[in-house]
Structures are given as C-alpha cells and as structure tokens.
Amino acid sequence: MTTQLFAFEQALKNKTKKEVLAGKLLEMIFTGLLRDGDELPSERELGTLFGVSRETVRGALGLIAAYGLIQVSHGAKTRVKRDERQLQRCSELIPELGNLEINNYDIETVFDSRKVVEAAIARKAALYIDAAGLKEMQVLLNQQKELFNQPVYFQLSDKRFHKLIAEYSRNDILLAYSEELYAYGLNFRRAVMVKEGSIERSYHEHVMIYDALKAKDPDQAEKAMLNHLHSVYITTVEAMDEAE
Question: What is the mean predicted confidence (pLDDT) over 214-235?
Fold first, then answer.
C-alpha cells in the first residue's frame, strides 16, 4: 500500500462533481483499466453508470481532454489516448495519481488481501444494504447482461458493482482498501475479458453475490464473494503466464 494512505481518494473530496468524475476516469487510465484506443460509453451511459448528469459527464470529459488523454469528436465515440508523455505531464499536474502503486506487489499478496477485505465487506453489506442499493445493483446487472462482448464498458460497470457493495459495508477504511486493491493487474484483466465466456462467467458470479445480499445472508455473501475472487485470481494468473 502507499505510505500516503488513500491519498488519491482524499484529494478528490470537496471538488465539483465533474472534477471527481474526471479524477476517477483518470485513475482508470493510469491503472490500465482504460487503454489507448478504447472507446468510452456514451455520455448518457457514463451518466447512468456513475449516477451523474450528462452535463457533469461532458464537463469531466472536457477536463480529461485538456490533458490530452482522450479524443472527443462530435458524432463519434470518445476514445482514450494513453500517451506516456501525456501521462507523465498529467502526473506532474495531479501528484496524487502517482500514489497508485498497487501493481508493485505480487499477485498472491494482493489477492490474499482482497479475500480478507472483500469477505468482510460482503458480510457487512449483507446486513446493511437497503432497497435502494439492491435496485442500483440490479440496474448494473441488467447492464452487464448485455455487455458480454464489450470489455471496456463491462469493466467500468464491474468497478462500480464492487464499489457499491463496499459502500454498504459502512466502513470507509474497508472501502478505501478495496478500491486500491481493485486496481491491481487491470492490464491483465483486459486480456482475460476478451476471452470468450469470461464476462458471462463474471456476470453470473455477480448474480450469486447479489442474491446473497438480497437474502441478507452474510455467510452466503462471503462465500459468493470469495468464489468470485478465486475465479478472478485464477484467470489473472493465466493471463500473466501467457504474457511472459
């Protein structure tokens, strides 16, 4: 973990909605979740995904475009421009992005940590999640069911899915740890997501987590989360081995 614990998240506080959203999208670009040439979902889809207005999305994209990290064209999809020189310039202007160091750890260390943190999150979320949270999860699942061939959009939705569960743990430390751990190996996760059946498998694992949370069953929620994390671990290791 970084010595400046959760510095990136803390730096986003007290900013406008468009600045917060821009920061989150920049984090995804820096960690490799979003790659050079990726097409972003539409403004409407991003607004739905992050729970903000299209105006907020448009403003956030404008801020990122000013750093030269996306290309916004009228009548065409917005594309990521993940240029190393621009990334360096952006990190100099926004120092908190330089604190995203989770990829310096080995995969066993990270996933051992994820199992501890997210098992606790799942148990607590099963106790605290309410009708509004379950409804938002269902919306995300409905999206994911249509995204089996859209890895970029699915990963954005996947990130929101895991964060939503963590938010219902009612524990800010667990939430912050889970977000930092999620960033590990995202470049390899992209390699996994393009494989046939991978997104569909993750979707069905998400459904099992949702069902356990809806049933208010902490034991089953923990089991479903650990099963999902084991699947993510195995496929990530396989992608890493193939890349060697």
Answer: 97
